[in-house]
Specification:
- The structure is a single chain.
- The protein is mostly helical.
- It has a domain of 36 residues.
- It contains two helices and no strands.
- Helix 1 packs antiparallel against helix 2.
- The N and C termini lie far apart (40 Å).
- The relative contact order is 0.13.
Length: 57
């Protein structure tokens, strides 16, 4: 069992947290291709736009 103080954060799929905006955008684009619902796609597209805006700042 890992020590909670040294454990790295993971998402619900067990993937490690993203470190760069580019990595976040790439992971969100993967989610778009896997999700079939339009509401999810729109929400994820909004997250991508937000990440790009933060990256440009």
């Amino acid at each position: 069992m890992s020590d909670l103080k040294t454990a790295r954060p993971r998402n619900h799929l067990g993937e490690p947290a993203t470190k760069t905006p580019d990595e976040t955008i790439a992971r969100l684009k993967e989610k778009i291709s896997k999700n079939h619902g339009g509401a999810n796609r729109e929400r994820i597209q909004a997250q991508i736009s937000q990440e790009r805006a933060l990256k440009a700042s």
